[in-house]
Amino acid sequence: MFGKKESPKINEAIQSTPVTQPILEKSSAAPELYAKIPVLIIREAQYSDKEQIYELGSQIPELQCSKEETFLTKDDLAGMIENYSNKTMIAEIQEKIIGFAIGQKEGQDYGCIYFVGIDPKYRNRGLGKALLKSVEDKLHVDTVYLLATNESAIQVFEKLGYKKGKTLTYMSRSLH
Ligand SMILES: CC(C)(COP(=O)(O)OP(=O)(O)OC[C@H]1O[C@@H](n2cnc3c(N)ncnc32)[C@H](O)[C@@H]1OP(=O)(O)O)[C@@H](O)C(=O)NCCC(=O)NCCS
Fold first, then answer.
1. pTM confidence score
2. How far apart are CA 93 and CA 136, in angstroms?
């Protein structure tokens, strides 16, 4: 496909292009390149991304609070994305969303990151870190709080500089 002279140029372009910018638009003159070279894009979510984020979030067991209370409903997710103080960032490869982080500015100086989820096939490659960082940057606050739902997430967040606060214990009681 590539002549020997062209290939290094493309590699250079990939290395020097920020991940937030597609190297080749799908509609560009070379759609076959787009199909052959997977390009990672990290960008702010749009309303139209809600279905894919919902599907991915629903498939990540760690993001389900309980059997009854699953990941956000589609309506809640849509409402969050539309909220002006919300920052939802996504990672996508060839229009497939493979990770997301949802944060919101809650007060003058602080924000919360409510969900971070990466497709299991793409974990441990720096995506969670990149998405968290991009939400943190966009919140423009002094402090960010998040809720870690499992031990492995605690370890990841600690590596990223988060410190444990007071311990919360999730409790429930059946009334029937
Ligand atoms: C938690 C999660 C978002 C991390 O995403 P990820 O893309 O795999 O993480 P990264 O590759 O960016 O790793 C960030 C750091 O954590 C480390 N790390 C990754 N997985 C780890 C694990 N299971 N245990 C310990 N450290 C881990 C990485 O080595 C990296 O450290 P470094 O910066 O020193 O190199 C992802 O595992 C996930 O989606 N888990 C299920 C959902 C979840 O639990 N979300 C959090 C609760 S809302």
1. 0.82
2. 22
How far does residue 29's CA lie from ligand 1's centre (Å)?
A: 37
Q: Is the CB of 59 under 6 A from ligand 1?
A: no
Query: In the predicted model, is pLDDT for residue 34 greater than 80?
Result: no
Map out the domains of the chain with their CATH numbers: 41-159 (3.40.630.30)
CB of residue 40 inside a 6 A radius of ligand 1: no
At residue 28, the pLDDT reads: 62
| Cα 176 to averaged position of ligand 1 atoms, centre (Å) | 38
Summarised one tens digit per residue, pLDDT across range 100-123 is 999 999 999 999 999 999 999 999
